[in-house]
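I'd like us to work through together how a protein chain folds, taking it slowly. We need material for that, and I hope you will provide a protein of your own picking. Go ahead whenever you are ready, and we will take it from there:
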Amino acid sequence: MKNIKIYARSLIFLIGLAVIFIGIDFLCARDGYTDYLLRNVNSDTQDYDTVIIGASHTKVSTNPVLLDQNADTCSINMAISGETVKDSFYLLEETCRNNDVKTVILDIDYQYYFNPPREGFYSESFFESQIRWSSPVKWQYILENLQYLDVRNTFTRGVVCSYEPAEICVNVKQKLSKSYKEADIASLDSPAGTYIDRGYFYMNPVNALGGQDVIDQWKDRSNECVRGYPLRYLNRIIKYCRDNDIDLICVTSPITPSSIKKLHMENVHSTINAILEKNNVPYYDFNMTRLDILPREDEDFIDYEGHMNGEFAKEYSALLGQIIKKHNNDIDVEKYFYSSYDQLYENLMEN
């Protein structure tokens, strides 16, 4: 009888704790783009056959609507700002749970492969904390990353909580709204641009580019090799696609022309290409796109880091769709891409 009382008290304590956590989450945790995106991809309204994964460069560069118009696909852009290669792997698994995915477009962003943040940094579990507890992918993530997880962000969404009264009012109003219940991404507001359906963010053009200091900090990264968890999870993505008969196509979306040489993107290209070539994975580096095929200038971007504006993204998305459509039909690579970075640099100087 005594043991039963102890168990009952423990159970009541755990239930009370869960109620407190749920209450804090409802009041204080800010839901936005990532939550809406995950609910969209798991809804019954659409079966996506193509998924685009990557980080912020991908989020603002690849418009699924224009991609589909040119590639005859049904795609969704699952790129999230700050998405690591580890995130991409679990995000791919989560996307495939309720969609019959045939093609994965992995946009390889140099920032997350060469000298990335150490595994287990405080906000790393941001993506995991957005996945619903009913998803087996969440439990897989937790079990496979126990040594890295911070309990404050694993069982609660502490990294996105705000305890200011005004913020709490905004959170509650949002979560009671129709657009929140329907996970309407287009209803989200941002002064930098417009959220579009299926995960794409249209970035407003700017008058002056920022981020030159970031380029100065990153210019030596290309001397690093791809190792540690980025390489481990890239290999897991390759294996997952191979095991599930999914066509994996790797790309690198173009960055700001004046930053390409400063960042030694030729080194990045050769390193990434060697890894993918070894695994028989096709790789299209759109920094090497011929300028007569995809004309571009610094003004087509919003910073020197390489985030493109929405107008240029229209052109890139259409071209990407054409490449994806022709991918399995002996594409004439020389028609679209320079044969080397030296050839690219020569043409950039002429322009």
